[in-house]
Every structure is written in C-alpha cells, then in structure tokens.
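step=encode ok
step=design start
structure_in=
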C-alpha cells in the first residue's frame, strides 16, 4: 500500500474511534516506495494515541507526509570532507512524517528521555494502560527501518513528533 494511503486510513480509523479533529496533508502523487507497513502503522498509531491522550478534548491533531532531503551525518568523521566532495547527491531522499498536537507540550530537557523505556513525565497521572513504552518502541521500529525520530516542542505550545524513513527503490506507480 502506498504510504500516503496507509497514513490516510489510520487517520480515518482514529477519527472514527475518538471523534477528534485530525487533519492530514500529503502530496497527491507521493512516489511509491517499499516500506514496512507493520512498523509504520505501529509508529503512527502510537503517535496518534499519544496526541489524543495528552491533548485536551477538542484539541486538534495535524499529520503530514512530505518528501525530505536528509543530509545524513557520516558515522565516521575520518575523510568526511573528502566524502562530501566526492558525493554528487549528499541528501538522502526520505519521507518525513509529522504528527502534531495542540496539547501541553514537552519541556526541552525531556525531548530525548521520552524515547527511553518506561519514561513518563513528572505529573502524568497513573494509568494502568500507560507504562511509558510507546515512544521507546516507536524509536526502535524507526531505527530498524533506517530512520530517525524526534520531537520538537515547548511547554504550552503543543508537540510535533517527526520521523524520517529513507525512500529506497523508488518506483513510479499509478497506484499512489
Ligand atoms: N503528545 C504528547 N504530548 C505531551 N506529552 C507527551 C506526548 N507524547 C508523549 N508524551 C510524554 O512522554 C511520555 C512517554 O510517552 P510514551 O508514549 O512512551 O508512554 P505512555 O503514553 O505514557 O505509555 P504507553 O505508550 O506505554 O501506553 C508520556 O508519559 C508523556 O509524559
Ligand atoms: Mg504512549
């Protein structure tokens, strides 16, 4: 299934479940490419569940899919200048997915640790169903897909979760 279709159907499913306002923007003709549907579905579902759980009722969730040129850092710093000179196309083609909410936001000092296992932020109420694993699993799935995931947020101004996955094996497809 094309990624824009898969994300669109998740949006529909969560809209039906929760009645929240979820908007979605994706280019009409995003190139079709091979990706692991299970992993991406799991991650987007986790992010949507968080957005709906932590944002007050009546909040808004924005999702987007866009093409992104990922200037990936090399693992080794040796020969980095030479590699850059040799490289004709430094940006890795990737898909960038964003799930943004109008919730309470997350202070900068927590932006990395929320992706660790069993981390819930101070003040979060006890909830039998919430153990602090959702984002940790999301990070593992995205890294296993060769991608990366992060949050941009400020207390009081909502949260934007982003992930990138490399677009390999580009295929022209009518079914996108
Ligand atoms: N959209 C969000 N807005 C504000 N805080 C968030 C948001 N998403 C995650 N957090 C914070 O990050 C913590 C970790 O999120 P994570 O999804 O890993 O765990 P959880 O939602 O608490 O539990 P689980 O996902 O295992 O049900 C949350 O407990 C919450 O404090
Ligand atoms: Mg969660």
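sequence_out=
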């Amino acid at each position: 299934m094309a990624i824009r279709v898969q994300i669109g159907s998740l949006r529909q499913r969560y809209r039906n479940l929760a009645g929240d306002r979820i908007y979605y923007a994706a280019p009409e003709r995003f190139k079709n490419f091979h990706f692991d549907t299970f992993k991406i579905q799991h991650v987007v579902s986790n992010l949507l569940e968080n957005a709906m759980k932590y944002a007050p009722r009546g909040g808004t969730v924005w999702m987007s899919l866009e093409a992104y040129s990922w200037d990936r850092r090399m693992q080794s710093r040796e020969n980095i200048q030479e590699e850059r000179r040799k490289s004709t196309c430094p940006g890795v083609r990737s898909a960038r997915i964003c799930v943004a909410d109008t919730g309470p936001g997350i202070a900068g000092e927590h932006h990395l640790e929320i992706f660790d296992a069993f981390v819930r932020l101070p003040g979060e109420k006890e909830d039998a169903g919430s153990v602090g694993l959702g984002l940790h699993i999301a990070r593992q799935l995205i890294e296993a897909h060769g991608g990366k995931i992060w949050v941009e947020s400020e207390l009081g101004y909502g949260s934007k979760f982003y992930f990138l996955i490399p677009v390999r094996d580009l295929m022209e497809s009518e079914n996108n």
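step=design ok
step=annotate ok -> The longest helix spans residues 37-54.
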